[in-house]
Amino acid sequence: MPATGTPRSANSRSGLRRSIVAAAALPLLIGALASCGYGSEAEKDDAPKANVADTSGKKLSASEVRIGYFPNLTHATALVGLQEGLIAKELGATTIKPQSFNAGPSEIEALNGGSLDIGFIGPSPSINAYVKSKGSNLRIISGSASGGVKLVVNPAKIKTLDDLKGKNIATPQKGNTQDVAFLNWISEKGWKVDPESGKGDVSVVRTDNKVTPDAFKSGSIDGAWVPEPTASKLVADGGSVLLDETALWPDKKFVITNIIVSQKFLTEHADVVEAVLTGTVKTNEWINANPDKAKASANAKLAAEGGKPLDAKVIDPAWPSILITDDPLAATLKTQSEWAVKAKLIEQPDLNGIYDLKLLNKVLKAAGKPEVSDAGLGATK
Asked: Pairing mode, if any, of strands 322-324 and 138-147?
């Protein structure tokens, strides 16, 4: 036994007390370290926020901009631009407030209601909204994507285009871009379909893209005229591509996604709109220069939206069928509006002024790129 010092039993009690205190303090210490940037939670919380404003950056006329898009590959400019921070980089101290939509009407409603400033959307909802508001609520300010729409069928039931007669074929929504295109194709075949009910020589079944794959697997539909990635999901489930819509268009190009803006926001915050367009032009350039990286980026954003990425057997064939472009392909929107009139879904529209491409062409010129045309449908003021 030691001649001096604390007895062994006292040492043991003292050590036990220190252990208890240390254990009690450990969670507080971990929390403190995490708040300082250490540990797995901090890595998650402190990861770069692609759409958060750079408070030291340039000051624009709005503190935030609300941007809408769909979780579709045909909205790749939005998916990649947000995921990579390429749009936010141009906005300086202006924060992006992203909003995801599943259908054109809900996005248009948000724009009309003042809860959305800029949106990625198809041509048919743009036309409908412009006409209904008599040209007062939106402008198309850029293109975004062409193509990416296919007619996929059950090959056991449909082997040729003529076999579509008497079959049930899905489109995403009455009067949407794919619905209008399919009704026009049916008309050119000389077949009859009531555009309101979808009944006729072909049964046009309006089905949300989210449930179309299940409807296809169950046999309640025999095929679908749909955008990507829904088309490739049907192929992965045993479907066969009978027609790619690009084959029906001159130069194999047609607008599938444009960028629209609230006229009020455009008037009050043109500098913010120009910054967004600078970001989308740079995003499109990056996508086209880095297709594999861009595909992975878009898939990462889709995973963040839906909880899981697209399977390779879906995204790999879908991705190259979409052309990413700044050009709004205005002449093709004009044609699509004529198809909608022919199908009696809308009355003859006055589309004069639906485009305002001044800021886009300014951005393109500054980047050394060719300007794009509004096909005579540009704003006059």
From this structure: antiparallel
